[in-house]
Amino acid sequence: MSSLPHCPECNSEYTYEDGMLFVCPECAHEWSQEPSSDAEDEKVIKDSNGNVLQDGDTVTVIKDLKVKGSSLVVKVGTKVKNIRLVDGDHDIDCKIDGVGAMKLKSQFVKKV
Q: 52: which residues sit within 8 A by CB, 6+ positions away?
């Protein structure tokens, strides 16, 4: 019996090779046969000026942002301290004074 790796998604033992990929017939997950490095898997999040953002950075809002579901507006120039980067469409998780916990898009902020 060949020693093919188990599926990283569902841990199925029934994987097979298809060209340069491994395929899982149970969950249809496909992955490369080459070992991937963690540096390639990390997504780099940049602000509106192209500066790389990191957890704990301080950013400034560059555009008035309406808060969905309320009449509040986050004004231009609002400083946001100690941001956290997350996966998704809104890739910054933060707390803004006077507004509360929010998620922001990195395209609407600049690094201080």
A: 44, 45, 46
